[in-house]
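Pasting as-is:
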Amino acid sequence: AGMGEFPALPAPATQGVEKLGIEAFLDALHGPAGRGVAAGEDPAAFPPTRLLAVDVRSPAEFETGHIPGAVNIPLFSNEARAAVGTAYTQKGRFEAIRLGLSHTGPGFSNLLDTLMGHGAKLGDSVLVYCWRGGMRSGSVAWLFSLCGFTVRTLEGGYRSYRRWCKTIVGNAHAPAPAPVMVLGGCTGVGKTAVLHELRRLGEQVIDLEGLANHRGSAFGAMGQAPQPSNEAFENVLALAVRRLVPGRAMWLEHEGTHVGKVLVPFGVASWVVNAPGGAMVVLEMDTLLRVKRLVEDYCSEENLKEEKWVDGLKECISAGLAKKLGGNRVKEALQLLDAGKWEEVAEMLLGYYDKLYTRWLSQTQAARTLRVSCPTAEAAANAALALQAASAPGEASEEGRRQSKDEEPPSTTCSSPSSCPAAAGPLEDMQDKASKGSETKEELSQSENVPRFEGACFCGEVKVACRGEPRSVSYCHCSICRRLSGAPFSCQALFTSEQVELTLEPGAGLNSMRTSRGVERHRCASCLAPVRATVLGGRLSAVPLGMITSWRGGGNSSPSEGLGAAGGPECLRPRHHLYYGNRVMDVR
């Protein structure tokens, strides 16, 4: 063929190759978010992908973590990747490219063969990504496009997926995708079995222990597959959460900060503690029934037939519980195992685990705590009881409402009663403020006359938008606010959490700190400016008044019009004081 007949070569990742943002990439791979799953289906058991996704990173990178559903067709081996990276650092880009070509040039045909071995046919659409969305994915995309495939690459590469995972489940401020129902109960009540029954009944369930390949106790690894890396666990968890229907409840088990050696992402750990929009459902069961269930789970005839199963139980006690039980009790437990007295061992261990769980349960910040008495150990019956309790209307339990003993009892006093006709009540009334007159996000977004207040932290990486008037605006003189701000008092506007939306720039984050029961404060991770505090387990949000720097809506008000403009900042005028008896100075 003459030169005029030879097709023009497209430039890598430019001509004939489309770049997709992370949401568009996931839509192409797994479909739109929020579609839900069928009754009995695990949100983390992903159906076949819509398109073939190719991860061109090295096998070691892929094994550590990858986008669920992708296949690995590495451009470099582990050794070649390390050599090219060293060349880039020591000799520069050109020498790294030369070395890379020496490793990959002869193997381009193998890349095509492997791609077609995964079922791809000429003309098919293929998704390609590497670590940063740079030369590796660009080169492979160029090759596949040249050979007749329709290729799309992930803008920002796998790194953009990891950042997306952080926004979904990894950051402490990550919003729950749905009302969260946390299933709790002492060891042996069968929480995981009840969750599976709830899933069979059509409830949305995320099984953290199932994803982590661990049952959560010192014996949790027995009979399980190896645990995934923290990165792989978070990758699957975030994508499973993406599938959930936002308006329906999501059930989680009451886990700690880790399941075995796998860390629970900060966002999910926060949902477990606070149960935002939902409740803590605690299963209560007689000790004898729990002992029976534990024996069935760990000492069944099938288990005992496995070689060295009892030795594994003894190792779990000796290695995992020796410091907590003490030498004498460990020795006694091992002797009971040798004698085949499974029930006595289980009852002994429950004494330890019950005390541990009681302490863990006391740390919940859920607005509602529902206790469910389980007369049997049948998971199906107990799932029905849990659903019945969750659907029954009721107020938050005293345990869910009680404030920390370390926090001073709030008081409300107007410094100038004649100027404060609309003074709000104390913090005990905040729950009423959250329920009375609280609009949904949809109602707020559809109303054109609702004022909107916007602002940002000092560095601008965290932005806040509040729709609608605040429930109250107050000066706070509590010792916690004083010590955290370094000022004699703080001033904040109190909104329902539905009214407040935080937006983070790429790479930005929040630092969170729980300062008292039901109160969690958030600061920009870069400039450390306070941006929000959540109250009553997340039902209310207190926004520092200094964050709200501009507004629109509610007529033609603008910042220059001053206090009293229609729909403008008049509603932001502080109306009362909190903890006024503890003040260090007066405000008039």
